[in-house]
């Protein structure tokens, strides 16, 4: 089911605008969806019945899968293998995995009790598809801003670390370097006038 959602989306793109269809992106998305969906389905079973520590373990495990899949997907599309891509996938999966797992468990513990095993399987598929669409929509909308946020944090940390370790203006933002040079020029001019 994880691969089914991107399959439908790419098929719709193919029907609407064949020139916008990208076979490489479609293969990557479908494969990533299938791997993530299959892994999360196993991790999500009986989620609500678990203790807090076990829930946390499953969320961390799911985050690792989500982050790895996102990073590998971006790498396969030629965007490079980046930490920000991994962190974005891990964050989004960590947000949505408990929601999906909770809704599946809740459905099984409520209306699922009165259903046959075949009906329960169909209901679980429907719940998985709804959760998949929600996560896909969220990812498509917020992936770029979240990745940019992680890029910015990484740059800020790297910049601060270089200032701390080097004790000079090497590897700092260009704007900061210009401001420091301006201050030095001002001080030099005021000394020469004095």
Q: Please, how many helices?
A: 6
- Name the poorly predicted regions: none
Average per-residue pLDDT, rounded, comes to: 82
3D shape: elongated
Ends distance: 77 Å
- Biggest sheet overview: none
State which percent range the strand residues make up: under 5%
Q: What structural class should be given to the helix and strand makeup?
A: mainly alpha
Number of E strands: 0
Transmembrane segments: 30-52, 59-77, 83-101
Keywords: Membrane, Transmembrane, Transmembrane helix
Structure in words:
The protein has 194 residues and is mainly alpha-helical. Helix content is 81%, strand content 0%. It is built from 6 helices and no strands. The protein has helices spanning 4-16, 23-44, 52-76, 83-109, 117-166, 174-193. The longest helix has 50 residues, at 117-166. The radius of gyration is 24 Å and the shape is elongated. The model has no long low-confidence stretch (mean pLDDT 82). Keywords: Membrane, Transmembrane, Transmembrane helix.
How would the blueprint of this fold be written?
Layout lengths: L3 H13 L6 H22 L7 H25 L6 H27 L7 H50 L7 H20 L1
Task: Give a concise summary.
With 194 residues, the chain is mostly helical. The chain has 6 helices and no strands. It has helices spanning 4-16, 23-44, 52-76, 83-109, 117-166, 174-193.
């Amino acid at each position: 089911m994880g691969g089914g959602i991107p399959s439908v989306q790419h098929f719709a793109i193919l029907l609407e605008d064949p020139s916008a269809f990208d076979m490489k992106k479609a293969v990557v998305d479908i494969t990533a969806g299938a791997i993530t969906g299959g892994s999360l389905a196993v991790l999500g079973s009986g989620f609500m019945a678990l203790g807090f520590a076990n829930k946390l373990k499953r969320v961390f495990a799911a985050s690792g899968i989500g982050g790895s899949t996102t990073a590998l997907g971006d790498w396969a599309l030629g965007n490079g293998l980046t930490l920000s891509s991994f962190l974005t996938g891990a964050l989004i999966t960590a947000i949505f995995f408990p929601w999906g797992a909770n809704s599946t468990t809740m459905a099984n513990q409520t209306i699922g009790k009165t259903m046959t095993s075949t009906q329960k399987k169909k209901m679980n598929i429907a719940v998985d598809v709804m959760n998949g669409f929600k996560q896909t929509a969220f990812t498509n909308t917020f992936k770029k801003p979240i990745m940019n946020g992680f890029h910015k944090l990484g740059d800020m940390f790297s910049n601060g670390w270089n200032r701390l370790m080097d004790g000079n203006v090497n590897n700092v933002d260009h704007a900061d370097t210009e401001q420091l040079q301006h201050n030095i020029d001002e001080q030099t001019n005021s000394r020469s006038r004095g």
